[in-house]
Design brief:
By secondary structure, the protein is of the alpha/beta class. Helix content is 33%, strand content 26%. The longest helix is centred in the last third of the chain and has 16 residues. The chain is globular, with a radius of gyration of 18 Å. The model has no long low-confidence stretch (mean pLDDT 93).
């Protein structure tokens, strides 16, 4: 029996907002197997983005344990986390996070500056990835010259530059029209079929069609699908 790629035990993320303690995550425990496509569903404020940022080492938990590939993220310092992210993870964000002064090719190649890869090899790799996401003819366009769907595909290509085994996506279709959203979902599904582990947090129910596993979050807790659906029906 293989061990899980991600192992989370009693994970909590609390923070103060004025005089109130917000329990973004309040005791989450779960395992995610390698080579799966996991969709974390939840409404705004459910804790799903907090979970993703903790898994990516972009934030620190209040308490609890996170292991990825048997390495404890909660015990790493910032330098160790940065190195671990670079060799293990690719991130896709709702707002694309592209550098506006760079064209698509430069945006994709940018993360490779920190790995010692020669400039010529960076450009070759970036072109290959833009071709993979169907944007070879847009390589010299800046973000302002690209549609939202095209920008998100550039972001997918950028997430792949270091050949990560784990893809983390935060509401990747949240700013896209229907057709562009389906294109990005299909790209993520293709990445999963190529052998990567994909974890997406979303409130877009279409994403579950591509999932091998589903996790439902409400008020910082993992709940069953029935509980989740019942809560959704109670929303006025």
């Amino acid at each position: 029996m293989t061990s899980p790629l991600i192992h989370i035990t009693d994970l909590k993320k609390h923070y103060q907002m004025g005089g109130t303690t917000v329990r973004a995550l309040d005791g989450v425990s779960l395992d995610i197997e390698p080579h799966t496509f996991t969709v974390v569903m939840g409404p705004s404020g459910s804790g799903k983005s907090s979970l993703l940022y903790l898994l990516g080492g972009l934030d620190r938990s209040t308490s609890g344990e996170i292991s990825i590939s048997d390495e404890r993220l909660d015990q790493m310092d910032e330098n160790a986390l940065a190195l671990f992210r670079r060799r293990t993870m690719g991130f896709i964000f709702q707002s694309y996070n592209l550098i506006t002064s760079m064209n698509a090719l430069e945006n994709v190649a940018f993360p490779m500056q920190f790995t010692g890869i020669p400039v010529s090899e960076r450009s070759t790799r970036a072109r290959q990835l833009l071709e993979q996401v169907g944007l070879a003819d847009r390589s010299h366009h800046r973000p302002a010259e690209l549609s939202g769907g095209q920008q998100q595909r550039v972001a997918v290509a950028r997430a792949l530059v270091n050949n990560p085994s784990l893809i983390l996506a935060d509401e990747p279709t949240g700013n896209l029209d229907t057709a562009s959203g389906i294109t990005v979902m299909q790209l993520l599904s293709d990445l999963h079929r190529s052998g990567r582990t994909v974890l997406v947090v979303t409130h877009d129910p279409r994403m579950t069609r591509f999932a091998t596993h589903k996790i439902f979050l409400l008020d910082g807790h993992v709940v069953s699908e029935d509980e989740y659906q019942s809560a959704a029906l109670e929303v006025p």
